[in-house]
Amino acid sequence: xxxxxxxxxxxxxxxxxxxxxxxxxxxxxxxxxxxxxxxxxxxxxxxxxxxxxxxxxxxxxxxxxxxxxxxxxxxxxxxxxxxxxxxxxxxxxxxxxxxxxxxxxxxxxxxxxxxxxxxxxxxxxxxxxxxxxxxxxxxxxxxxxxxxxxxxxxxxxxxxxxxxxxxxxxxxxxxxxxxxxxxxxxxxxxxxxxxxxxxxxxxxxxxxxxxxxxxxxxxxxxxxxxxxxxxxxxxxxxxxxxxxxxxxxxxxxxxxxxxxxxxxxxxxxxxxxxxxxxxxxxxxxxxxxxxxxxxxxxxxxxxxxxxxxxxxxxxxxxxxxxxxxxxxxxxxxxxxxxxxxxxxxxxxxxxxxxxxx
Length: 357
Fold this sequence. Notes:
By secondary structure, the chain is α+β, with helices and mostly antiparallel strands. It folds into 2 domains: 87-114 and 220-357, no CATH class; 115-201, PDZ domain (Pdz3 Domain), CATH 2.30.42.10. The chain contains 9 helices and 10 strands. A 4-stranded antiparallel beta sheet has the order 5-4-6-7. α4 packs parallel to α5 (221-247), α5 packs across α7 and α6 (259-274) runs antiparallel to α7 (278-301). The longest helix has 30 residues, at 327-356.
């Protein structure tokens, strides 16, 4: 089951990614020869206009194949004939669609589960928060100078700090106020606590019966969409931060996971959620889809050869210099980049196997 779910998730996020390229390419009048779901031999399909729409036998993502040449055609152009701005738009559209998918998935999750906020609803007596002067009704807006828009942001920035003292910025009566606070270790909880409780909103659609006693209030519909957006932004920030840590050697490359490691993680999440309910499975898989989709978007925007980010960089160079990079040189750069990425993928897969042994 874990393999099937992993293939399904990867197919969805890759096809959504390729659909972004496809849509913008069509808007730029680029000749798109084929749009396929899956890889390998053709299973079925049809042709509309110049484009073949196919379903292929292997559920391994999909692709959008644009023509490199469009000779003897006055009504369409090839990808190579596009302007630098058009190439930037086409390449950028794929990652944007991944971010939109992550936003949609996180919005649905927020609507169907508890929605965590950064609004403080209670302060424990004699706690670090009470001593610092934080009050119920405050809204956390920053941690150590980093803007906080979601509970995920708050958890991320507090977990990354190596200092026991935090600068917490809250909004009170329309004004931002700063408080220095040092969490206190709680013997019962076995962890350090700030001493405040953050508000939780009820599911908008309580499909899992989490609020059957009606103890929690729903937020406005806009709040759930806001939650989805800022949750997506938080995933993007954490992914980008992880790659910075990787590049600066603050985390080891062995910490990365490829398809094998992801399949193992999907299987573990599935087993845990299946023990609860079918809705727990659906929402858990949606959360993994959001995480992987946002990760794919970030990775593809990195300025590396053979991926969207590398093509965007070349297009920017052409835009600034007003000179076309020779196609043979660009092709060689992307080929070398592809080989290196494949080698990295093999190394990550090898480490994934070692982790499972």
